[in-house]
C-alpha cells in the first residue's frame, strides 16, 4: 500500500511539473530581466534573491526595483507594491473552493506560492478539488524557475554594462499590457484603462512623480465602479 501511495504521489508531482512548463517559458525571461535590473539598481545579490524567494511577485518586484533605483522613499515602495498585490485577495478567494478539506498549513503554503499564472492553471483544472501533489508540484516548479532566472539575471547584470539596448526595462510594462488585455472584456473596462493611463501621464507631468500611478488607479477604479453602478440601476 505504501508503495502504491508513493507511486501515486510521485506521479501527481510529475504532473504538476509538466503543467508548469508553459509558466517556465514565461517566467525565465521576466525573472532574468528582474535580476539584471535589480543588480543595476544597486540591490545586493542576497537581497535580490531573498526578494524572489520571499516576495515572489513579478510585478511587485519589478516595481520595487524601479522605485528603489529612482530613489523613492521606503514607504512609497511598500504602499505601491501592497496596492499592486491586492489582487491576490480576489485570486485566493476565487480558488478557495478548490481547497476544501486542506489543512491550514497546506493552505498557507499554497497561498504563499499563488501567482497570477499559477492561479490561471489551477482555475482551469476541471476537477472540483485540486490534487495536492499536482498543485504543489506546479507551484514549487514555478518558483524554483523564478529564483533561478533571477540568479541568472544577477550574474548577467555583472557582465552587461548597458542594459538599454536589451530593452529589459520594458519587461514590466509589457507584462502589465498582456495582463490588461486578458482582463478587458467590455467598453467600460476599455474606458477605465484609457482614463487611468491618461490620468497617470497628466499627474506625472503635473509633478506628482511618485504617486501619479497610484492616484490615477484609485480615480480610474472609482469612476469605473460608479459607471457600472449607474448602468445597473438604470437597467433594473
User: How much strand content do the residues show?
Assistant: under 5%
Which oligomeric form is depicted? single chain
Helix content: over 70%
Mean pLDDT: 84
Helix/strand class:
mainly alpha
User: Rg from C-alpha positions?
Assistant: 20 Å
Q: Which residues form runs of ≥5 with pLDDT under 50? A: 1-7
Alpha carbon gap, first and last residue = 59 Å
* Tally of DSSP helical segments: 12
Q: Encode the helix/strand succession as letters.
A: HHHHHHHHHHHH
Per DSSP E runs of 2 or more residues, the count of β-strands stands at 0
Largest sheet, strands/sense/barrel:
none
Apparent shape = flat
In short:
The chain is an all-alpha fold.
Written overview of the protein:
The chain is flat. It has twelve helices and no strands. It is mainly alpha-helical and 236 residues long. Helix 2 (21-41) runs parallel beside helix 4, helix 2 (21-41) packs parallel to helix 9 (132-157) and helix 4 (58-69) packs antiparallel against helix 10 (171-183). 77% of the residues lie in helices and 0% in strands.
